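Appendix C: a fully annotated inverse folding record. The material below is reproduced so that readers can follow the format used throughout the book. The structure is listed first as tokens, followed by the designed sequence.
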């Protein structure tokens, strides 16, 4: 770590570069370039994950960062962000993006759901459509107020609720919870997973209707979405 604005650490997937959300972008990338150049070829060939936190990064800014890394023989593999602007920029540049591990901006489009003792589990609410290439991970539940497009992916330890059309891949109960459920107003996913069970969407077209997927008799079944527990 050069100071509090740039931090670099190794991970099982390559290198994680965390960038301050407050520092001016050009100053920040200049510091990053200087830090990388100090190491010479040490980082050459590395696959890079960049965490920009709540900072909204434009397509031009993200493109300049990608080029900065490529000039040093590094690959920008994944962007972690809490900003819809950054996710849109990553999508435009064909770079994978997903939510950062923590969400701090109460006005952001991805809102953390902090539940009470009665509710039990933390989760994440995303108030927009998930486009192709987006991935959302949560240690609790995931609520999508929008659609999940083909090529998008949700992985949740808890339940997944889609207040819209579900066309992507969803894995609920990712830590093995067979009581987890997946709900959607219109459910035609590429693939559903609950705990260790997997099912793909049938090829025939069905009338859109609210449905819930759950495990019953050691298989995933999809049925009309009613209140849980009734």
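Designed amino acids, in order:
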């Amino acid at each position: 770590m050069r100071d509090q604005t740039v931090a670099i650490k190794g991970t099982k997937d390559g290198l994680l570069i965390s960038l301050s959300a407050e520092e001016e972008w050009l100053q920040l990338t200049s510091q990053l370039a200087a830090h990388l150049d100090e190491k010479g070829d040490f980082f050459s060939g590395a696959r890079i994950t960049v965490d920009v936190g709540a900072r909204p990064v434009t397509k031009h800014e993200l493109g300049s960062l990608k080029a900065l890394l490529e000039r040093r023989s590094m690959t920008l593999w994944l962007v972690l962000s809490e900003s819809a602007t950054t996710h849109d920029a990553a999508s435009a540049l064909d770079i994978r993006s997903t939510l950062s591990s923590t969400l701090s901006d109460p006005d952001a489009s991805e809102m953390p759901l902090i539940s009470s003792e009665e509710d039990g589990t933390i989760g994440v609410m995303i108030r927009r459509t998930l486009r192709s290439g987006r991935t959302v991970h949560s240690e609790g539940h995931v609520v999508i107020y929008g659609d999940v497009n083909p090529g998008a992916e949700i992985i949740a330890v808890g339940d997944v609720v889609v207040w819209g059309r579900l066309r992507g891949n969803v894995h609920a109960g990712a830590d093995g919870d067979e009581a987890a459920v997946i709900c959607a107003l219109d459910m035609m996913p590429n693939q559903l997973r609950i705990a260790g069970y997997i099912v793909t969407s049938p090829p025939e077209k069905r009338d859109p209707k609210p449905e819930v997927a759950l495990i019953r008799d050691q298989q995933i079944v999809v049925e009309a979405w009613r209140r849980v527990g009734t």
